[in-house]
Each structure stands twice: as C-alpha cells, then as structure tokens.
Amino acid sequence: MTNVFEHDFDASQKQQDDKKTIDDILQEASRYLKEQKNIDIIKHAYEVAVKKHEGQFRRSGDPYVQHPIEVAYILATMNTGPATIAAGLLHDVVEDTDYTLEDIKEIFNEDIAFLVDGVTKISNLHYNTKDEATNANIRRLINSLNDDVRIIIIKLCDRLHNMRTLEFKAPEKRIRSANETLNIFVPLAYFIGAFQLKCELEDICLSYLDNEAYNTLKEKVEYIEKDYEKCVKIATEEVTRTLSENGIKFTFRTKILNVYHLYQKLNKGYKLNDIHDLVNFKLILDDKEDPYRVLGLIHKLYTPMNNKFKDYIACPKTNMYRSLHTTVFGPDNHLLQFQIKTTSMDDINTIGLAAYWKYFKEKGKTKMQHELKLNYQFFNTLRDLNAGIDSDQDFIDRVKQEIFSNNIYVYTLRGDVIELPNGATVIDFAYKIHTDIGNHLYKAYINGKEVKITHKLNNKDRIMLLQKEDAKPTPTWLNHVVTSSAKRKIKDALK
C-alpha cells in the first residue's frame, strides 16, 4: 500500500544530499513568472552572486554561493516575485564582498537594492541579550514589516536554510540559534501566515533543543501513519466519489500534526487518543466552489464530533487564515479533521502574504503591504508599540510580552477575533477596539454574564461592552491593563 500522507520536513534528514541549482530556481520560478525579463533578472543575480562569492566557503565545506541559491529556491517555491528572488541571491553580497548597494542599484534597480539593504541591516541578531546594538537590530527586523514585508520573507527563508544546515555549527551555537528561531522567527512566520515554513522551523528547533523527545515523537508519528493508513485510503475513496458525483472540482492532501505541535499538546496533558486533529484531511476546492456546500456533504458522509467545528472563513484568524474545520468519525471510527478551503485560501494559508504575488503580479508588493496594515492585528500592535516606546530594550521587552507570548483570542459580539496578551482585561479589550470605547466604558458582559471591567479575559470569551457619555477612565485603571496601547490611551485621557 502506498503512503497516503504528505510529509513536512524531517529534521533528522541531511539537507546536503539535495543541493539546489540555478536550474532548479528557474524551473520553480517559471511556473508563475511567464515574462522572459523576469527570468533574466534572476539569472543575472545568480551570475553576480557566483562571481562575488567566489573563493568563499561555508562551515559545511560547500561554496558559500550555495546558501543564497538555496534561499532563492525557497523563495521561488513561495511564488515570490523576481525582485524578491534576485534579492535572495544577492542578500549577502554587500555584507560579505566588495559589492555595494550602489552597484546593485546601477546594475539592477532600486527595488532590489532596497530589499538587500533591508536584509543586511537585520543580520546577526541574538535574542537573549542586553546588547544595545543587538536590540536595535531586532527592532529593525520587526519594524521592517512596516517598510516592506518582503524583507521579512527573505530573512525567514535565509533563517530556514541556516537551520537546515545547523549541524555544522558548534553545539552551543545550535542551541542559541534554535531558541532564537523559536522566539523570533517562528512567531513572525505565523504572523504573516507562512504556515508551512513555520512548521518546518519548529520541528528543526525541537530536534536540537530536545532531540530525545523529537525522536520519540517521530516514532509516534510513524505509528499514527500506520494506524490511520487504511482509514485515510477508504476516506479518500469515499470523499472522492461523493464530491465527484456532485460535480465539485477539488484536490486533497492528508497530513499528520507536525512533531512540534504534537510535542506541545502532549506536554499540556493531552493523551494521544484525545487529540482530534492528529490527521488533517485537506479539501482544496476550485475558487468557484462553495466550501459550505462541501461541508454539508462531508457531514452527510460522516458523523461530526460535537463542538469541533470552526468557521475560519466567516471569522478568519488574526493572520488571515481562512478555512472550515470539522472533526468527524471517519472509517473504522477514526477521528479525522477536515479542512475545507478554496485554492486561493490554501495559498495564503500555506505561504502567507507571499501568495499575493501569484494573484496580483507586479501589484503584489502594494497589495501585501495594504493587506498587512489593514487586516493583520499584530501589525497594529507593533505600530503602537513602536510609536510609544523610545528605548530599544523596552520595545523588545514589550514585544515579547504583547506579541511573541502565548496570546489569547477573544470575540466581539459579531464574531470578530481579537488577539490580546495573557493577563489582558476588559479594559485592554475596549481600547483594542477603539479609543472612544475605552474612554467611555462602564459595563461589560462576558458570555452573557456581567463582569467587572477589570476582569481578566480567557481564551474564547465573547465580550459585550456598554458605554456612557459621562464615563471616564480613572488612575486605578492603569493597574488593571497590560497592553502598552491601553496604558498610553488612559494616560492621555487623564491629562
């Protein structure tokens, strides 16, 4: 029987056996870049990178140019534009060679030079340090989102390849890099919706931070695969028949929960049999198809599990993830989680903001930035923090607490998801919605029950706020908020 599961990266596999070439980059890019001028830009960037990195080598013994080639290949798999791929090939030439930004501007264009400059400025950061230069560097990394999210995408791909080759570093540097990646790069990947990249980074980090647990869980995953193989094969046949009979165009992928997420759930006390999303059955529909219609057909085919339905289409996650999730009792009474989404939803769910190039081409950059500023909640929090805090160390401390910590997700009455740090209160929530709502807040209801406005919120709380024109903040409110934005707005109101 053939393996029916799609696999994420196996951190135990050596990456050196599958070195990419310029031909691999061009083959990937040619899937969606149809104009020869775009291919020529990538070829030219490759030629410059080869020439300028000549004689340089990595710790692995590979020519140094192999690293930017791998970065550019990852970028091409993410459907990024020609300027982004070219910048991936050139991202180290300014830092490591005699090639300058002015050279890049003259030979290529200002856009590529801007991206290379952005990546250069945020290199060599270390998370757990009080060093002022490093703190400033981390701040630049985080705030580069405001300038151009493509800088973050390139840096994430750069970090991914460095993590794939981490074995060639000294043991203490492996641990530092793994912690740094979990603390900074994994959250950034989540925020911009690059789920596939995020999962790979997580698994690699775990393989270095707790190798024994990683190997044990890999064995569990193999056991789950074997246990579910027959079930998935039958379900695939039954679902294919049902959807085909109804004239629905679709593809599907079957995946097991990645190792790091399994690790987290087991550490929270879950038993293997209690994890309802161990196996994900992803139904990817033609953009013209209706996910809700397909949901109905799946529920006719298999009995849904109570309280395990999530509508992330009507109420997207804070990183704009959109899909219908339902857990059902599949063949042999195995639990299966179906994720039902359209092709465009899946693209954004998998590679995040980078997917906008595929749909908007040259307008993709503008669309990415517009979407980031309009719909991605963490960006607004980041902007507020940056505007209100001068000290780099204080800024990073607040980012760790308000953005990179394990946040909670609560709901407005109309179902909008609001992301807040742990310990946030009703007052924090009110100011997150709007300054005027916070300034005139006087009563709150959570899940239908009246609570004090100083009440600490929990995950999945549904909140209703009442306002009065003469209601005003008091100095004591400052003792009951955790977000910098709420504190600043309260202080402004008290002046």
The tally of helices reads 22
Strand content: 5-15%
Mean pLDDT: 88
CATH superfamily of the largest domain: Hypothetical protein af1432
Q: Residue ranges: pLDDT <50 for 5 or more in a row?
A: 11-16
Quaternary? single chain
Helix and strand composition category:
alpha+beta
CATH class of the largest domain: Mainly Alpha
Count of individual domains: 3
The value of Rg in angstroms is: 24 Å
The CATH topology of the largest domain comes to Hypothetical protein af1432
Distance between the termini: 72 Å
Give a structural overview:
It contains 22 helices and ten strands. It has 495 residues and is of the alpha+beta class. The chain folds into three domains: 22-206, Hypothetical protein af1432; 212-352, Beta Polymerase, domain 2 (2-Layer Sandwich); 406-494, Ubiquitin-like (UB roll). Strands 1-2-5-4-3 form a five-stranded mixed sheet. A hairpin with a 5-residue loop joins strand 6 and strand 7. Residues 11-16 have low confidence and may be disordered.
Topology:
Layout lengths: L21 H8 L6 H17 L13 H12 L4 H9 L2 H4 L4 H7 L2 H12 L10 H16 L1 H16 L6 H21 L3 H15 L1 H35 L4 E7 L2 H9 L11 E7 L5 H11 L1 E9 L12 E6 L5 E8 H9 L4 H5 L3 H12 L1 H12 L3 H11 L5 E4 L5 E4 L5 H8 L1 H5 L1 E6 L2 E3 L11 E5 L16 H11 L1
Parallel strand pairs: 2-5
Antiparallel strand pairs: 1-2, 3-4, 4-5, 6-7, 8-9, 8-10
Helix pairs in contact: 1-3, 2-4, 3-4, 3-9, 4-7, 4-9, 6-7, 7-9, 8-9, 8-18, 8-19, 9-10, 9-11, 10-11, 11-12, 12-13, 12-14, 18-19
